[in-house]
């Protein structure tokens, strides 16, 4: 996403949640590509979160790459969760602009941005679909049955300085 577009989203909305949802929807149809982060060209479920939140200035820029495609199948360590907990807190009821994580493999390793609370709907880069989609979680045959957690950038007081973990997958 360009800086001009992010600036426009921030200026046109006094609601940062609306800006996050709008920015996430700009990625719809972008092909799925592991570890990529170019709107319209390729992105995965981790990098869409990084791009949306960093490009809107809600989180200081960082890059969790490199990581392997199947890291979640071989490790119990909650890397994704660790990054997220640096700038968000777990919440019971997600609202638009919050993040949902789903357990895939041995840990929480698939994420999406909440666009509607009821019914719970997310924008996510989904490898089997080979693109970024907006889907109702309850209607998704895989995600509906997986353990999930919700996180909010706006829950409680969070540190104004984002420090990603020193090591990544």
Walk me through this protein's architecture.
With 169 residues, the protein is of the alpha+beta class. It contains 5 helices and 8 strands; from the N terminus they run ααββαααββββββ. The two termini are 25 Å apart.
Q: How is this structure best summarized?
A:
25% of the residues lie in helices and 24% in strands. It has 169 residues and is α+β, with helices and mostly antiparallel strands.
CATH topology heading: endopeptidase fold (from Nostoc punctiforme)
Quickly give the CATH architecture. Answer: Alpha-Beta Complex
The CATH homologous superfamily is named endopeptidase domain like (from Nostoc punctiforme)
Number of domains: 1
| Largest beta-sheet details | 6 strands, antiparallel
Mean pLDDT: 82
Low-confidence stretches: 157-169
Strand order of the largest sheet: 3-8-4-5-6-7
CATH class: Alpha Beta
Task: Tell me the structural class.
Answer: alpha+beta
Shape: globular
How helical, in percent, are the residues? 10-25%
Q: Taking Cα atoms only, what radius of gyration do you get, to the nearest Å?
A: 15 Å
Total count of strands: 8
What is the ordering of alpha helices and beta strands? Answer: HHEEHHHEEEEEE
Distance between the termini: 25 Å
- Per DSSP, the total helix count is 5
Residue fraction in strands: 15-25%
């Amino acid at each position: 996403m360009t800086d001009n577009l992010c600036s426009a989203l921030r200026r046109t909305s006094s609601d940062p949640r609306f800006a996050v949802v709008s920015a996430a929807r700009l990625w719809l149809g972008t092909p799925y590509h592991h570890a990529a982060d170019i709107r319209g060209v390729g992105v995965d479920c981790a990098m869409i979160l990084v791009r949306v939140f960093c490009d809107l200035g809600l989180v200081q820029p960082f890059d969790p790459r490199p990581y392997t495609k199947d890291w979640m199948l071989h490790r119990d360590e909650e890397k994704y969760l660790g990054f997220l907990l640096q700038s968000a807190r777990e919440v019971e009821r997600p609202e638009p602009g919050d993040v949902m994580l789903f357990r895939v493999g041995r840990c929480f390793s698939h994420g999406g941005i909440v666009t509607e609370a009821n019914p719970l709907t997310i924008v996510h880069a989904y490898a089997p679909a080979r693109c970024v989609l907006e889907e109702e979680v309850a209607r998704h045959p895989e995600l509906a049955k997986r353990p999930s957690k919700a996180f909010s950038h706006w829950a409680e007081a969070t540190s104004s300085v984002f420090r990603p973990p020193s090591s990544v997958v």
